[in-house]
Amino acid sequence: MKFMKLGSKPDALKADGKSVRYVSSELATDITITVGEVKFCLHKFPLLSKSNRLQRLVSKVDEENSDEIYLDDFPGGPKAFEVCAKFCYGMTVTLNPYNVVAARCAAEFLEMTEDIDKGNLIFKIEVFLNSSIFRSWKDSIIVLQTTKALLPWSEDLKIIGRCIDSIASKTSVDPGNITWSYTYNRKLTEPDNIVEETSQEKVKHVPRDWWVEDICELDIDLYRRVMITVKSKGRMDGVVIGEALKIYAIRWLPDSVDELVSGAHAQRYKTLVETIVCLLPSDNGVGCSCSFLLKLLKVAILVEADESSREELTKSISLKLHEASVKDLLIPARSPQSTMFDVDLVQGLLNRYMSEEKDGLNFEANEKKDKVNDESLLRSMSLLNVGKLVDGYIREISHDPNLSLASFIALSQSIPKSARPNHDGLYRAIDIYLKEHPGLTKAEKRNICGLMDVKKLTIDASTHAAQNDRLPLRVIVQVLYFEQVKASAIPQSINNIPHGPSNADSNGDDECKQTEGESCQYLDNQVCHLKEGELCKNGKLNKKNSKNSRSGTQLLPSRSRRIFDKLWNVGKGQAENRSSETSGSSNSPASIVPGDTKSSGSSLRHRRHSIS
């Protein structure tokens, strides 16, 4: 910390209690100056030789036959006047970053200029400010902090502006040229990673955001002005600006929701959030993480920030929603919403994100046709991340008993099919919702289960679904059927890999897809005719599965086997009547009994199924 000593005489200003100061000398004092609650008993001559204002005031009181002067609204108070008085007497005075602004404002008030005496106090303080304070990083910040209590003097004297310009200029310095001390506690650093001002060694790797912690101590109004100046210079990366805003928000915004909305500081937090939003880098949200933006939005909602701030945050978040986590999206709902979390807000973010994605895809299609570029690949990956995010989010909010079915379905359908190649996450969300909402009707259960494609479930999810009593019977049968089709196709497709040209494989794929659709339609028709009571009396699904020793395929639970046996028996007659119209194969799915699957020399692709 820089300092400057003025004068050489010993300090002769004594105190008589808390409210009286006097100069101890052989001459009696002849003027009393009252500043605030403190009276200064001084001599006229030293004061009049340095201050134009005191000359006029003394002349006025002499005319009134008085010896007392009252200085109302004196900048800096009694302490600042004491510095000026000691300077007039030539006593030793020490100026430092904590008192220099008050002394400068007091000297301006007393008009201690060069026209009355060369080398007066204003001149000496300006030399100290320009040669030492404004050249020091931390001293500039300390001085700037002291200016708030001295408004409007500090503003009129341009001390605030000069401090801000000094700080902003230093933040733009190449990190490799930094030789002054700074604070950096966010990462594990060795003690010698912070360079002292007296050291000639330089930091090997000074981080670009080395300065953000030091300015966090500034009041929000001063902080805003510093950041605006930093941004106006155009040398600071948006990522560093975003990091600075994040550190400031962490420093001043409380973690407690109750403290945020308390009446004592609610207005302050509202102003803080609105200011941070205004300072966000104008780079479409690139400079700030999505997690930080979502937390800022959460606070903005709680403190009821203005609509423009929330809209700006929503816009930035929608551009990078793929970077968010489920925890970030769990924003508490506000009255009059009945749900635990603000589902409508997340729905709006999703809609906005998908709209941006659609516009981007249309642009790529027009500009770069028949070309696969890095940007399109990134879009695909981002879309997959959003799909996982949505499934995770609806899985969390499904525990809310007040979550409506319409909201659940709307969220699930907010993303395209390509964003959800795997339906395990959606299945888990549906299962939780069915568990937490046991009062759903059959039609509502069919609607919510219709969101899920059982063919896109993994083996583990299919096994769980096959034993899930909360699912409609139709869904369970579909799961069982497609698992058996997959299990039967694996060994037979392996046997037929070397055989057949590529066009035969293509025809086989089309035939298999057509047959699966016909088979599923037939199963649905048969399930509608089965009595649920007859099926349910067979007990719960057996959770233990075994493997077929011949084919290696997974056997069905006992209840599922009985269901399948009944279905195949019902359709057996129809299958046999149609078998003559096929290629004469005896290996139709009607003859494949669970637990007795046999490998065949012909591939599943080359079969014609007898189930319509």
What would the keywords be for this entry?
Potassium Channel Kv1.1, Chain A; 52% helix; two-stranded antiparallel ribbon; ubl conjugation pathway; SKP1/BTB/POZ_sf; 25 helices; NPH3_dom; disordered C terminus; 612 residues; BTB/POZ domain-containing protein NPY1; five-stranded mixed beta sheet; BTB/POZ_dom
CATH superfamily of the largest domain: Potassium Channel Kv1.1, Chain A
Termini Cα gap: 90 Å
Work out the helix count: 25
Main β-sheet, spatial strand arrangement: 2-3-5-4-6
Strand elements, count: 7
Estimate percent helicity.
Answer: 40-55%
Name of the CATH first level of the largest domain: Alpha Beta
Low-confidence stretches: 188-203, 499-520, 525-556, 568-612
As for the number of domains, it is 3
Biggest sheet descriptor: 5 strands, mixed
Give the overall form: elongated
Beta-strand percent range: under 5%
Mean pLDDT: 78
- Radius of gyration of CA atoms, rounded to a whole number: 40 Å
Which CATH-level-2 architecture of the largest domain? 2-Layer Sandwich
Helix vs. strand class = mainly alpha
CATH fold descriptor of the largest domain: Potassium Channel Kv1.1, Chain A
What does this molecule look like?
The chain is mainly alpha-helical and 612 residues long. The protein folds into three domains: 172 residues, Potassium Channel Kv1.1, Chain A (2-Layer Sandwich); 111 residues, no CATH class; 150 residues. Helix content is 52%, strand content 4%. It has 25 helices and seven strands. It has a five-stranded mixed sheet with strand order 2-3-5-4-6, with helices on one face. Strands 1-7 form a two-stranded antiparallel ribbon. Strand 2 and strand 3 form a beta hairpin. Helix 14 crosses helix 16, helix 17 runs parallel beside helix 19 and helix 21 runs antiparallel to helix 22. The radius of gyration is 40 Å and the shape is elongated. The chain starts with a strand and ends in a 33-residue tail after the last helix. It is a peripheral membrane protein. It is found in: Endomembrane system. Keywords: Ubl conjugation pathway.
